[in-house]
Amino acid sequence: MTTPTHPAADLPAPTDLPGPTAPDPTAPSTRALRVLALCGFLLLAGCLVLTAVLGLVDAVEGDGVGGGLLTAGLWSLALGAAAGTAALAVPRRALVAAQYALAFAAPVLAALD
User: Fold this and answer.
1) What pLDDT, on a 0 to 100 scale, did the predictor assign at position 11?
2) Are 105 and 97 in contact (CB under 8 A)?
3) How many angstroms separate the Cα of 14 from the Cα of each of 6, 7, 10, 18, 44?
4) Is the pTM of this model over 0.85?
5) Strand runs (DSSP E) across 24-105, as ranges?
6) Of 71, 70, 103, 69, which is closest to residue 84 (Cα–Cα)?
7) From first to last of its 113 residues, what are the pLDDT tens digits of the chain?
8) What is the per-residue pLDDT for 16?
9) For a tag on the chain, would you pick the N or C end, based on fewer CB atoms within 10 A?
10) Which of the 8 DSSP states describes residue 15?
11) What is the pLDDT of residue 67?
């Protein structure tokens, strides 16, 4: 006669579970992320100039009024600066990537306007 087994009997014991994983050796250091965030502010400044030039060209050659995409581009720069400031305080790859993506999005949005 076989004894019935409980479905949880096949699960590993809590001591058999793997422990915490080691940190990723290929992850950038906090210092490198902060340097990238600082360089992102230079990129934001350059993109601000380019966005302003595109906005002024559109104002002179177009109808004289900035559209919604120009405003979205300027908001993108402001959000990129906020992401860069947060990346300086709490260095995370996602924040630095967001800073760079928002910086590059601003002139693209202004050019589409």
Assistant:
1) 61
2) no
3) 17, 16, 12, 9, 50
4) no
5) none
6) 103
7) 566 566 666 665 556 556 667 777 788 888 999 999 999 999 999 999 999 999 999 888 877 777 899 999 999 999 999 999 999 999 999 999 999 999 999 999 999 98
8) 55
9) N
10) G
11) 84
What is the 3 state secondary structure string of the chain?
Answer: CCCCCCHHHHCCCHHHCCCCCCCCCCCCCHHHHHHHHHHHHHHHHHHHHHHHHHHHHHHHHCCCCCCHHHHHHHHHHHHHHHHHHHHHHCCCHHHHHHHHHHHHHHHHHHHHC
Helix (H, G, I), strand (E, B) or coil at 36: helix
Q: Can you tell me which residue has the tokens 């990537």?
A: 97
Q: Which residue's entry shows tokens 């559109």?
A: 58
Tokens of 89: 């305080």
Contact 105, 83 (CB under 8 A): no
Angle (CA) 106 46 93, round 5°? 70
**Cα separation, 45 vs 21, whole angstroms:** 39
Structure tokens at 27: 């992850």
The amino acid at 75: W
